[in-house]
UniProtKB/TrEMBL annotation:
The gene is cobM. Residues 2-208 form the Tetrapyrrole methylase domain. Pathway: Cofactor biosynthesis; adenosylcobalamin biosynthesis. It is an enzyme of class 2 (transferase). This is Precorrin-4 C(11)-methyltransferase. The keyword S-adenosyl-L-methionine applies. The lineage of its organism: Bacteria, Bacillati, Actinomycetota, Actinomycetes, Kitasatosporales. It comes from the Bacteria.
Length: 249
């Protein structure tokens, strides 16, 4: 059997990949984060599948369920919101499965920042304006950030910053980024991206905190700060330029 860590996407049930949906439909055991994974996805599980909400389980209890399924010879769909490659707590699960000798695979999904960019109808990289995106969070109630990865340091780059797990602390975000981006820097917050209750807030670095509080956004949101969000005058990409020699590899 195999444990499949599947990126379930940012919220809309139909944003799971075809591969992820196929594996989900064939797995007799499914572990899912009940507070984040759309319940509609569970309807894709085979009849009689064992469904386990991990919202109130710790890492050892989750591992126990995965190892038990392995012993019973069952494939497992381990659904994670967004994409497993960022802020998913997949590493510690894979480490324990390695120790237990349980095979696993990772199936990528649509990350929250991509769904947020789609909601904003924005490309996050814009020629001559900004070509770098930083995905990060802040240290508050979660694990401390490594040295050199605080907002004040990252902000010196001037790159587009995408913050996960930070909406509750928007005042702190603004205070730390203002010296580097300026009050007028385009800023956006997207909560529940791709879901029916999606919230989109657009503003500037000095106005976004008030909007976030007025909207009552405290979780399941990403904050984006950077020039590319407001870019209107920019050079066309060389990719489709008429001057590009398409006969050269």
């Amino acid at each position: 059997m195999t444990v499949y860590f599947i990126g379930a996407g940012p919220g809309a049930a139909d944003l799971i990949t075809v591969r992820g949906a196929r594996i989900l439909a064939a797995s007799p055991v499914c572990l899912y984060a009940g507070s984040l994974v759309p319940v509609e996805l569970l309807a894709e599980c085979p009849e009689g599948a064992r469904l386990i909400d991990t919202a109130n389980l710790d890492i050892d209890q989750i591992t126990e369920e995965l190892v038990r399924a392995h012993a019973d010879g069952h494939d497992v769909a381990r659904l994670h919101s967004g994409d497993p490659s960022v802020f998913s707590a997949v590493n510690e699960q894979m480490k324990r499965l390695d120790e237990a000798g349980v095979p696993y695979e990772v199936v990528p999904g649509v990350p929250a920042f991509a769904a947020a960019a789609a909601a904003l109808k924005r490309e996050l990289t814009v020629p001559t304006v900004g070509q770098t995106v930083i995905l990060t969070r802040i240290a508050q109630r979660a694990t401390a950030m490594p040295e050199g990865e605080d907002l004040a340091t990252l902000g010196r780059s001037g790159a587009l910053i995408v913050l996960h797990l930070a909406a509750r602390y928007v005042d702190r975000v603004v205070d730390e980024l203002l010296p580097h981006y300026g009050a007028a820097c385009p800023t956006a917050v997207v909560a529940m991206a791709s879901r029916p209750d999606e919230i989109i807030l657009r503003g500037t670095l000095d106005s976004i905190a008030g909007q976030v509080k007025a909207a009552g956004v405290i979780r399941t949101a990403v904050i984006m700060v950077g020039r590319t969000l407001g870019a209107e005058q920019f050079r066309d990409s060389y990719l489709y330029s008429a001057g590009r020699d398409r006969h050269v590899c």
